[in-house]
Design brief:
This protein has a 9-stranded mixed β-sheet, with no helix packed on it. A 7-stranded parallel β-sheet has the order 2-5-8-11-14-17-20, with no helix packed on it. The protein has 2 domains: 159 residues, UDP N-Acetylglucosamine Acyltransferase, domain 1, CATH 2.160.10.10; 33 residues, no CATH class. It is 0% helix and 31% strand. The chain is an all-beta fold. The radius of gyration is 18 Å and the shape is globular. It contains no helices and 26 strands.
Length: 204
C-alpha cells in the first residue's frame, strides 16, 4: 500500500498543487498552485515552491529554500537551507514610467537541475542556468552559467573546482583522464571537452 502525502497543518499547499505519494510538507512551507512534486519528496520548514514548479521523485528542499517558478528539478535533487533558485533576468519593482510591475510586465525564466544534483546552503542559482546531473554547487556559491554533469563548482561567480561522483564525494585523479570515487571505487573518464562520464557509459 502506497502512503499518501503528509502535510503539516501550518503549511500552505494550494488546491491546484500535486503531491506524489509519500511526500512530506513540513511547518510553514508554501507550495503554490500548479506545482507538481513527485513521490517521496521532503519540503522542509519555511521552504517555498513556486507556481508550476516541477520536481521529480525523492527530492529534498531544506529549510527556507526558495524555488521560484518555472524551475525544473529532476529525481533525487537536494536544495540546501536558504538556497535560492531565481527567475527574473532583469529584476525591477517598477516599469520605466514608474508604474508598479505586474505579472504581464516580465517573463519568468527558470533553473533546471538534473537528477541527483545538490545545491549547497545559501547558494544562489541565477536563472536561466542548468545544473547537470550529480553536480555539486558549494555552499554560498553564485551560479551564473551552466554546470556540467558531475562538476563541483564554488565561489562568486561559481567556477569548477573538481569532479564529484554519485556518492557525493570529490573524485580522485587516477591518471590518464580517469577519476575514481574514494567511497565506491567507481571510475569516471574525463573527455577532451572537459566533460565527465562514468566509464560504463563511455563509448569509444
Amino acid at each position: 500500500m502506497t502512503a499518501a502525502a503528509v502535510v503539516d497543518p501550518s503549511a500552505d499547499v494550494a488546491p491546484g498543487a500535486t503531491l506524489g505519494a509519500g511526500t512530506r510538507v513540513w511547518h510553514l512551507a508554501q507550495i503554490r498552485e500548479g506545482a507538481r512534486l513527485g513521490t517521496g519528496c521532503i519540503i522542509a520548514r519555511g521552504a517555498y515552491v513556486g507556481t508550476g514548479v516541477t520536481m521529480g521523485d525523492n527530492c529534498k528542499i531544506q529549510n527556507y529554500a526558495l524555488v521560484y517558478e518555472p524551475a525544473r528539478l529532476g529525481n533525487g535533487v537536494f536544495i540546501g537551507p536558504a538556497a535560492v533558485l531565481t527567475n527574473d533576468e532583469y529584476p525591477r519593482a517598477i516599469n520605466p514610467d514608474g508604474t508598479v510591475k505586474s505579472a504581464t510586465d516580465w517573463q519568468p525564466v527558470g533553473v533546471t537541475i538534473g537528477d541527483g544534483a545538490s545545491i549547497g546552503a545559501r547558494a544562489v542559482c541565477v536563472a536561466p542556468v542548468t545544473i547537470g546531473k550529480w553536480a555539486l554547487v558549494a555552499a554560498g556559491a553564485v551560479v551564473t552559467r551552466d554546470v556540467p554533469d558531475h562538476a563541483i563548482v564554488a565561489g562568486v561567480p561559481a567556477r569548477r573546482v573538481g569532479w564529484v561522483g554519485h556518492a557525493g564525494r570529490p573524485l580522485q585523479d587516477a591518471g590518464g583522464g580517469r577519476w575514481r570515487c574514494p567511497a565506491t571505487g567507481r571510475e569516471y573518464r574525463e573527455s577532451a571537452a572537459n566533460l565527465l562520464t562514468p566509464t560504463e557509459e563511455t563509448t569509444v
